[in-house]
Write a structure and sequence with these properties.
Elements: H1 2-8, E1 18-22, H2 29-44, E2 59-63, H3 75-83, H4 99-103, E3 106-110, E4 121-126, E5 141-144, H5 150-165, H6 175-188, H7 201-214, H8 219-238, H9 245-251, E6 253-258, E7 263-270, H10 274-277, H11 283-294, E8 298-307, E9 310-319, H12 325-335, E10 343-345, E11 355-359, H13 366-379
Parallel strand pairs: 1-2, 1-3, 3-4, 4-5, 7-8
Antiparallel strand pairs: 6-7, 8-9, 9-11, 10-11
Length: 382
């Protein structure tokens, strides 16, 4: 893997035909691991007739869809990659690439399927419902399935490919991939927690196949390893001791845009409860600076805390300059039934004139809220 990543540095802004394997803009563990592992696999499979990578002239370049400066914010990504001796000097980030290079490259999208590069997209892997505005190329190969982790879909593809194209003695080449994919599935599914309800039978099936290849051990040991992996990754994700308030706002960020009215909504996610974030002495100034930096009229804060396997979530709505849109979003989410958020308002909370809620249905994540907010933003008339 490390040799592959070193080799990919030669592909950056080169004249050679390149296919960029691009994760989403939040660059969480799922997105980063899927980009790196799929690019590695396709590079190894070049020329194989059962793979998209059968064009021998194409190289595959994994790209983390954030500026290089923000990599330190992705603490769980840093932790897992450091375990595999993958340092950031061998990784490629969005701002490493020139516009001219992007304009003539092909793309594979992982962990998202709405992108400004959709028209030149060869393949998509995502675990969200299909967005009609995706505008993918007609010949784009689409793998969309509502599983707990996109890593499940990438692992499924790799396992199918190597079962017929790679000799058993070459499986050792894939040990790092299997390790990273399995760890990602464990984190994304909240370690297959019943209360979080983030996993599907396929997540369980693929995880077990990876575990068999990695350990071939008994179920008790496998369960113990899963628990250790989950606890370590949750701790790494929650390690915000060195992050400023504004870095926290950028750590796990989604931005929705209405280009007609030049209106943006920022939705940062925290590995802590929103109520704790707004208690920080400089939180108010950080949110104001952040909204200006991202040109966001509304900031929707989403917090999550996991303690001994128990999940807590909360929300905050801060209206900076959107008129009635923020109130419309709040009312829609309060009355939404599919899913029901079961929101309980924090009455005595004075922070930038915002509204703050406990999210009692802890099964609801940003993935559920995003399409609701996006639909309201797209329909908004100033």
């Amino acid at each position: 893997m490390l040799n592959f990543l070193k080799q990919t540095r030669k592909f950056i802004n080169s004249a050679e035909p390149v296919c960029i394997v691009l994760g989403n803009e939040s660059c969480d563990l799922d997105s980063a691991v899927c980009a790196v592992t799929l690019a590695y696999h396709y590079q190894q499979q070049r020329g194989q007739t059962n793979s998209l990578s059968n064009r021998k002239t194409r190289n595959f370049l994994p790209v983390l869809n954030i500026p290089r400066r923000d990599y330190t914010l992705k603490t769980e990504v840093n932790y897992l990659f450091d375990q595999q001796s993958i340092s950031n000097e061998y990784l490629t980030f969005r701002d490493d690439l020139q516009q001219e290079f992007l304009a003539r490259s092909e793309f594979i999208l992982v962990d998202h399927h709405v992108s400004p590069f959709a028209a030149r997209c060869l393949e998509v892997f995502d675990h969200r419902a299909f967005d009609e505005k995706a505008q993918l190329a007609n010949d784009c190969k689409v793998h969309l399935e509502l599983v707990g982790s996109c890593a499940t879909l990438i692992a499924e593809l790799i396992l199918e490919d190597i079962s017929t194209t790679v000799a058993p003695d070459v499986l050792a080449m894939y040990e790092i991939l299997f390790t990273m994919l399995r760890s990602t599935i464990v984190l994304d599914t909240v370690n297959f927690s019943e209360s979080a309800n983030r996993y599907t039978p396929k997540d369980v099936e693929i995880s077990k196949k990876l575990e068999h290849l990695l350990t071939n051990s008994n179920s008790d040991k496998t369960l113990s390893e899963r628990n250790q992996i989950f606890d370590e990754l949750v701790a790494a994700r929650a390690d915000i001791s060195r992050l400023t308030a504004i870095q926290l706002l950028r750590k796990d960020l989604k931005i929705l845009k209405n280009t007609v009215h030049n209106l943006s909504i920022a939705i940062p996610g925290f590995p802590m409860l929103v109520q704790k974030f707004i208690e920080r002495p400089n939180a108010e100034s950080a949110v104001k600076e952040f909204s200006e930096e991202t040109n966001s009229a509304i900031v929707i804060l989403m917090g999550m805390l996991i303690t001994n396997g128990n999940v807590e979530r909360d929300l905050g709505f801060i209206n900076l300059s959107s008129g009635e849109l923020c109130a419309t979003i709040q009312q829609t989410l309060l009355t939404n039934t599919e899913p029901s958020l079961c929101l309980q308002q924090h009455e005595k909370c004075d922070f930038l004139n915002g509204s703050f809620y406990k999210l009692c249905n802890v099964k609801v994540t940003r993935k559920h809220i995003l399409p609701i907010v996006k639909q309201l933003l797209d329909k908004y008339q100033m």
